[in-house]
Amino acid sequence: MASVTDQKSSQFQTLEAETVKNTQAAINASKQAVADATAEITETLRKADGAAAEVISIGRGNIEAFTTAANIWSVGMHDLQKKYLESMQVLIDETQEHLKSLSSAKTVKDAIDMHAMMLRNSAEKAITGNSRLASASVKLAMDTMGPINACVGAAAKRFNRPQDAA
């Protein structure tokens, strides 16, 4: 039993390490993309004038907003995965403790009662944990869309202003 638990724990640790590595690679790639895009946009802005400069500025804002959103999403997903893995590790640990405690049962009825209580506790924790993960997922979605919504709002204000103010 311990080797199966050790194997599962090792798998969770491997998954967490891969998640951290992939998240860091995504963040680095996003930072590089912003740097490259900013350099290219800056060069183009020097050559452009009037309306073209306005359009390029909006494009730059779009790139920055989507890059920021991607960074928020990747960090948030890492946090969600970490919370999930932590809850799974707690479940594994509690299951191990339950199996050890079953050996101390004096009667079959005691063992059934202990097992029923463990199942009830596990179900309650699963519901609570899933509710927390769902709430965190909704918050992540809202946080991720924040920079994009701000960018769209700013672009709408630019295009809706009176022509003589432009």
Q: Write down the Rg.
A: 26 Å
Structural class: mainly alpha
Order of H and E elements = HHH
Shape, please?
elongated
Q: Give a quick account of the main beta sheet: strands, pairing sense, barrel closure.
A: none
Task: Report helical residue fraction.
Answer: over 70%
First-to-last CA distance: 73 Å
> What is the strand content?
under 5%
Query: What is the count of helical runs?
Result: 3
Give average pLDDT, whole number. Answer: 83
Which residue ranges are poorly predicted, with pLDDT under 50 across at least 5 consecutive positions? none
DSSP summary, beta strand count = 0
Features:
mainly alpha
Verbal overview:
The chain has 166 residues and is mostly helical. Helix content is 92%, strand content 0%. It has helices spanning 2-47, 50-102, 108-160. Helix 1 (2-47) runs antiparallel to helix 2 and helix 2 runs antiparallel to helix 3. The longest helix is centred in the middle third of the chain and has 53 residues, at 50-102. The radius of gyration is 26 Å and the shape is elongated. The mean pLDDT is 83.
Secondary structure: elements and pairs:
Layout: H1 2-47, H2 50-102, H3 108-160
Helix pairs in contact: 1-2, 2-3
State the gist of this model:
With 166 residues, the protein is mostly helical. The chain has helices at residues 2-47, 50-102, 108-160.
